[in-house]
């Protein structure tokens, strides 16, 4: 699979010409029999459900997805019986043209984009849709200035896709780093933990770490730690028979009274009341 940096380098050395740009409705319940698609093209799924099959690989159509085609792609599609599918679709030609060591080089695009064939899931679909719509509107104008702008807008579309690919890759890497801190928190919940310390261990800024942590868990890091400590305290109150002072320390709180306030805020009752209730059950 081509990554964002490789794609940017390739497209930087390429010249594009938009051959067609359209906005089309594929009616509910319709189907296209397999045929060979012989031009570079790119689709944006605006709405609807169904699936594309490209070289025997099946892709469920979802709004916001981008589909990339290269020449010699066997293609078919089936649209859901319940709703139409709306797409933007752009056909284009391109070749590589760049300067290297004071010499201009021109090369065929060949099959370079082939590894990109299939579905690209966008991080910011509204932004990508605006780019498709801009290419479509400029293409319809037909005059030379609009066509020049259309080709520039098409390059902007690819830049938007590169940004989306990079952000998706970065987000995936960041998610893995944050998930590592989940395990660290579970193993060290009794110890003093700060958001700054956890963010540093993930290699992320404190603000970004906190936002992504909440996206993944539904809680800010501090609240997540508190709730984990309360959960552990409940387990000890139910089964250990230890004094509240000892349980407080085991879950990371030196101050028994502060721990009791935290516990009541989360559990809705004091630790003593919880212990009595659990013994009755």
Automatic annotation (TrEMBL):
Listed Gene3D superfamilies: Homeodomain-like, Jelly Rolls
One matching Pfam family: HTH_18
Residue stretches making up the HTH araC/xylS-type domain: 179-277
Tree of life domain: Bacteria
Keywords, sorted A to Z: DNA-binding, Transcription, Transcription regulation
Keyword Transcription regulation attributed: yes
UniProt-listed InterPro entries: AraC-bd (IPR003313), Homeodomain-like_sf (IPR009057), HTH-like (IPR037923), HTH_AraC (IPR018060), RmlC-like_jellyroll (IPR014710), Tscrpt_reg_AraC-type_HTH (IPR020449)
Name of protein: HTH-type transcriptional activator Btr
Gene that this polypeptide is encoded by: btr_20
